[in-house]
Amino acid sequence: MYAFTLERPDSVADAARLVAAGAKPLAGGQTLLASMKLRLSAPEQLVDLSGIKELTGITKNGNAITIGAMSRHLDVANNADVKAAYPALADLASRIGDRQVRAMGTIGGSVANNDPAACYPSAVLASGATIVTSRREIAADDFFLGLFTTALEDGELITAIRFPIPKRAVYEKLRQKASNFPLVGVFLAQYDSGVRVAVTGAGNGVFRHAGLEDALNKSFTAAAAAAVKIDASDLNSDLHASAAYRANLISVLTQRAVTKALG
């Protein structure tokens, strides 16, 4: 690693001021520290967010669950309110990476990083969640802009994510065994307003699948999902899987999710 200084502010305001001046925020460090070790990233100043109490905590208010940005994956997986009200979200968190990643990684760090194969962005997008920042609130549909790109502005920090509780939801993924990232992951959530389907791992970023949503809004059955043709033209093709294979996985995992949701 290159030399750097480490700041540990105790308020969001102080952290945002440092980040606006050019410092790099450090959440769980699962991506940033690995990049620094490989000398792919060389920030001169890090801002450790772990000491900011207002960024932690999980609360249920009415029909929504709000999760502080610095909540660890294990916190989400083991939280009683999340497990009772939104079990699919707890299940997703319980299967991210390995035990070490779950003990250190944070929901805010994952969403801000927007890795194209991360699990959390699919839950945020499928839920129609709201990303609360140090400046504003951003709808999930407006937040994820592409490969490692979000609507966050310079100096803006995620403080919490607010999830509306669905009628039912399921997360299905096929894990890439070397990295533990999903080769493809599908998060399905059904609300009174309709079904939302978000896909991760298949393209240059998380995305909703309009065809699957339309079909499942007409008939919430595995057969309806199976009848949807998944276009492979914009999907990833690499040493792990072809675009055609990923397209097939989107269909298969959605069918599994529907079947599981129906009990």
Automatic annotation (TrEMBL):
Annotated SMART domains: CO_deh_flav_C
GO MF, any single term: anaerobic carbon-monoxide dehydrogenase activity
Domain FAD-binding PCMH-type: 1-168
Keyword Amino-acid biosynthesis listed: no
Keywords recorded for this protein, A-Z: FAD, Flavoprotein, Oxidoreductase
Enzyme category, top tier: oxidoreductase
E.C. designation(s): 1.2.7.4
Domain of life, source organism: Bacteria
Protein name (record): Carbon-monoxide dehydrogenase medium subunit
